[in-house]
Amino acid sequence: MTIVISGASGQLGRRTAQFLSDLDDVVLVTRTPDAVADLGAEVRHGDFDQPDTLPAAFAGGDVLLLVSLPTIGARVEQHKAAIAAAAEAGIRRIAYTSIVNPGPENPAVVAAEHRATEEAILASGLEYTFLRNNIYADLQHASAQAAIDSGRLVTNAGDGRTGYVTREDCAAVAAAVLRGDGHANQIYDVTGPETLDANDLAALYSELGGKPIEVVHVDDAAYAAGLVEHAGMPQAVAEAYATFGAATRAGVLDVCTDVVERLTGRKPTSLRTLLGL
Fold first, then answer.
1. CA distances from 173 to 75, 132, 166, 170, 234 (A)
2. 227 lies in some domain
3. What is the mean pLDDT of residues 6-21?
4. Domain with 41 in it: what CATH number?
5. CA angle 81, 31, 120 (to 5 degrees)
6. How many Å apart are CA 113 and CA 260, to the nearest integer?
7. DSSP for 84-108?
């Protein structure tokens, strides 16, 4: 069986390849081949902005890890081109990195695009594995530092909870479903070992910084305005970020499963551990 990893030079794609260990049957597809030349696998050029490059890049593969692209607003069409190329190349199964609860009830800006991609994979007739990853715990480093610097954790998440998962654990799960059997036509919610709310985060950040952290609840508009004022984000980007707090508030990220341990044999890493506490 030949495994193809798209977006192989990205953090998730590269780490997944490293988890596979034996790369004799692995093809890494990227628009920057030199970035993964050190891994020892076969590397092919493939650019989602040039879909005609993808069939040859995927050729001979049996299973494809389709790592979702970061191009919000454009990636559904890019993903659809990749799905068509996979079918043309003879890929049998696509493992796709999605989000927990990508249905219409999820107000996160990325949910509709993940849902559309999942639907496109289902419509292709190919086998699938949907890796519905929760929010990356790794992204909380910046939030922790901002809270420590200001003494305030400003949030629009209300009392909602999130099952933060490390990128490392997501990569380990992806490697497991690429290499292992029994994952065809399965959906996995990939999460950390617990769910946390704003008070939990503030307590962790307070312990990390050695100072009290006050939780400040605001609405979506005020949260976005704060990102514009203090982080220098464009208004549209800030509003997009605010939708993740709305998703937390709606309860759609309050998901905690045993998928990491069940598929990899190791316990998931907690945010506490990731922060070095």
1. 23, 11, 11, 5, 34
2. no
3. 95
4. 3.40.50.720
5. 20
6. 24
7. HHHHHHT--EEEEEEESS-STT--S
In a domain, 106, yes or no: yes
Residue 81 has pLDDT above 90, yes or no: yes
pTM: 0.96
- Whether 42 is covered by a domain: the verdict is yes
Determine the pLDDT at residue 132. 98
Q: What b-and-e string marks burial along 22-58, b requiring 16 or more CB atoms within 10 Å of the CB? A: ebeebbbbbbeeeebeebebebbebebeebebbbebb
Question: In total, how many domains does the chain have?
Answer: 1
Domain hosting 128: range is 3-133+166-190+256-263
As a dihedral over the C-alpha atoms of residue 145, residue 149, residue 154, residue 160, rounded to 10 degrees, the angle is: 40
Task: Report whether pLDDT(21) > 90.
Answer: no
Contacts of 119 (CB under 8 A, 6+ apart): none
Structural domain includes residue 89: yes
Q: Give pLDDT tens digits for 100-153.
A: 999 999 999 999 999 999 999 999 999 999 999 999 999 999 999 999 999 999
**Residue located via tokens 């464009």:** 234
- Contact (CB, 8 A) for 177 and 183: yes
96 backbone dihedrals φ, ψ, rounded to 5°: -120, 135
Q: Which two tokens stand for residue 156?
A: 């629009």
Q: 106 near 252, Cβ under 8 Å? A: yes
What distance lies between CA 20 and its chain's CA centroid? 18
Q: Which helix (H) or strand (E) covers residue 65, if one does?
A: strand 63-66
